[in-house]
Amino acid sequence: VFMWEADCGDLNADRFSLSGQITVTNPDYIDYVVPARQAYVWNITIASPGVLIAFIAVLLVVLVGMSIFRSPAVALMPDVTIKPLRSKANAIINLMGSAGGVCALVLGLGIFFNTGAISNTFMNYIGFFGAIVIIMLIALVVFMVTVKEPEWAGEMEQKSKELGIDDVDETEAASGDKKLSKGEKISLILILASVVLWYMGYNAVTSKYSIYAGRVLDKDYNLTLIIAQAAAIISYLPIGMLSSKIGRKKAILIGVVILTVTFLVAGFMRATTPTMLMNLMFALAGIGWATINVNSFPMVVELSRGGNVGKYTGYYYAASMAAQAITPFLSGMFMDRLGFTALFPYATIAAGLAFFTMLFVKHGDAKPIRKKGLEALDIDD
Question: pTM for this one?
């Protein structure tokens, strides 16, 4: 089996066929090569468990480190951006995050390290991770030199006062705290519940689709996921501008409907389904996901005040990360018991429930500007 895998060379084994044409998923690769590779790695792990233990320990440190810098980094956006522009600003954040993901793919799968090649299945990743470390350190230096948080935050507060959208009283400003009303608390809970539900649906698809594509659709999974990502990237900025006009809640509901419908249609797709239709569904799913992502975080931090922005950012990421931790297990359990075709019904139900929880949210949209200073800020730019 490993000789066959090595003979595939740099071809994508997921698309290798006996005729030599790169067409659809070869079930032999999934049924024989992957289990053999897993058995080989399992035997190595049993023989030297210390390596696995060390890996888990390092991974834990990495995840803790990510959680320490990610929430404060994302919280910088609402700290320095007035409320009416936060959906647009979050669109830029998502766009840059996607750009970073693309750069990582180019770095890892491209000419530099070629991690996707079958011949590199058991490659040494020291060089790859070393390059990532260098990039992150450069980014840190650029951040420290260019970002002037106190100055920008002061400018934001001054602009908010000029436009009449600063509704924090002196006590709250001094303490950095704010008591939510009963309605705001309910809205916060419903928004976070919606975050959990749509992440459960979307992440289940993205984490299991590589297996689903081979077992059910008999097609390559890479292209469809790339199409979804590309559609999201293209739509981030237009969605940010649209959300400023129609409101965050309406935009999110539209995105959830798009996501639910695409998952529902995808659940009926099989190996005979035209590839064009499948690609269209994933493009729409990417647009729907972008519509949700651009507006959900600003809705959460809209309920915060002053020094609470970081805490509410933590609420958002706690909800999203909890969903991403739970859904692979739940979706996998359903797929084991009901078959692989249970994946998209599972995602459809999760996304559909998110629509109803979001429907009852009453707070979190940007408050209208009350003063006549609208001309001082070009909202449409």
Answer: 0.75
**Helices and strands, counts by H and E, the chain:** 14, 0
Residue-wise pLDDT for 227-249, tens only, equals 888 888 899 989 988 888 899 99
SS3 assignment, position 175? helix
SS3 22: strand
Q: Rounded to whole angstroms, how far apart are CA atoms 276 and 286? A: 15
Phi-psi region of 48 (alpha: psi -120 to 50; beta: other; left: phi over 0): beta
Shortest CA distance to 227 belongs to which of 286, 181, 310, 148? 286
300 closest CA partner among 321, 287, 314: 314
Residue 2 confidence (pLDDT) above 50: no
| 3-class DSSP state of 14 | helix
Instruction: Give mean pLDDT, residues 333-355.
Output: 94
- pLDDT value, residue 154: 85
| φ, ψ at 194 (rounded to 5°) | -65, -40
Q: Cα separation of 193 and 358, whole Å? A: 8
If residue 231 lies in a helix (H) or strand (E), which one and from where to where? helix 222-246
Return phi, psi of residue 16, to 5°: -85, 130
- Give phi and psi for 22, each to the nearest 5: -85, 100
Answer positive or negative: Cα dihedral of 24, 30, 31, 34. Answer: positive
Is the Cβ–Cβ distance between 252 and 310 less than 8 Å?
A: no
Coil/strand/helix, residue 16? strand
Residue 46 in tokens: 């049993």
Task: Give 167-214 pLDDT, tens digit per residue.
Answer: 554 445 444 556 788 899 999 999 999 999 999 999 999 888 878 887
